Amino acid sequence: MSEIIVVTSGKGGVGKTTTTANLGVGFAARGKKVVLIDTDTGLRNLDLLLGLENRIMYDLIDVTEGRVPYKKALVRHKRHESLYLLPTSQTKDKSAVNSQQMNSLCNELIKDFDYVIIDCPAGIEQGFQTAISAADTAVVVTIPEISAVRDADKIIGELGRAEKDNIKLIVNRIRPDMVKKGDMLTMDDIDEILSIDCIGQIPDDELVVTSTNRGEPVITNPVSSAGKAYKNIVGRLCGENIPFMEIVPEGFFAKVKKIFKM
Amino acid sequence: MLDAIMKIFGKESKSSKDIARDRLRLVLVHDRANISPQLMEVLKDDMIKVISNYMEINERDMEVSFTNDNSSVALVANIPIERMKHSAEFKR
Ligand SMILES: Nc1ncnc2c1ncn2[C@@H]1O[C@H](COP(=O)(O)OP(=O)(O)OP(=O)(O)O)[C@@H](O)[C@H]1O
Ligand SMILES: [Mg+2]
To answer: Does residue B19 fall inside a structural domain?
Structure first.
């Protein structure tokens, strides 16, 4: 069964694109055929996170406006051969694609792919409405800050209005040291407030930044706690029952390991 | 530091996370309610239906709203009664 997943958040900069890239690599590593669609037209980033920025020929708008078939615009990942990117345009804006075009594109794509994952722009304007229109599942990303959680609630309301009932929550950038001191909302707090099925908590991890620098999603890094969290999320999305990892401040040994890049 | 001192003297101050959680709970009640004033009307109509089984009320001056204090949110209804029905008239 193919699935169309949209990754969304309301508030900007909370980790949608990072999540999209990692889920894509994670599913592909399990042998699934995956296509990632960047819908953040005008502010494209997903190509950079995947290290594919130099291979782009055509984009989403070329496809939706019928200039090229979608297969011509797909960029295949270098190492994960069942992972493809459909990049967006860096020069057009979010009104360049509408929901109808998105729906017919996704209907084509699910014939060929196991997973279609859509990276949504921030906000609740047309770009958001277009990005969610074709999705079966919505993954809402938030961070443990009061404003991001409020925006997530708003997005959940909007998804409900669009009759998207399958909504999953990811809490990103948790800082174990702050949680321990009682200075940061936990996944359980947020889960209780939003009452949405939570499929993962991701620690704040420097390795997310270094892996972005390299264009290799952190899920491929075996020592990264964020990478491990993403692996668990991929498993849960595949229907596995994986217990949540404990968010504990990094021990001495893990720090040493990181210093020596083990 | 101040927190640590407060703890030593047995005055538990609320952690910033608890403050965030309480503030969020309240603001979301308002956000969610604000999303649809229509729903408030539906709720009001349902309340009128139920209460009218027992008493005649002044629907025009009826007020239903949310209020909050520091730790909880309440639905407050102010419903002027015109006439109490006799218990024999109650529809149950
Ligand atoms: N778990 C994490 N630990 C550390 N840094 C992170 C983590 N997740 C995301 N970041 C950083 O946060 C920044 C924003 O991430 P990202 O671009 O994925 O967010 P976004 O929601 O797609 O943003 P936008 O709304 O602009 O599209 C990036 O610099 C990224 O490296
Ligand atoms: Mg993004």
So the answer is: no
Task: Search chain B and give the residue with CA nearest A148.
Answer: B24
CA-nearest of A89, A102, A96, A120 to A17 is A120
Q: What is the ipTM of this complex?
A: 0.79
CATH number for position A52 = 3.40.50.300
Reported confidence tier of residue B10, pLDDT bands at 50, 70, 90: very low
Could you tell me if residue B3 is inside a domain?
A: no
pLDDT of residue A255: 63
Distance from CA of A118 to the nearest CA of B (A): 26
Contact (CB<8Å) A183/B16: yes
Report if pTM > 0.80: yes
Q: What does the mean pLDDT of chain B come to?
A: 79
Q: How many domains does chain A have?
A: 1
Q: Give the Å distance between the CA of A19 and the centre of ligand 2.
A: 9
Percent of chain A with pLDDT over 90: 91
> Quick one: which ligand is closest to A207's CA?
1
Residue B23: C-alpha distances to residues A78, A150, A248, B26, B27 (Å): 47, 10, 26, 5, 6
Range of the domain at A40: 3-259
Contact residues, chain B to chain A, C-beta under 8 Å: 15-18, 20-21, 23-25, 27-28, 31-32, 35
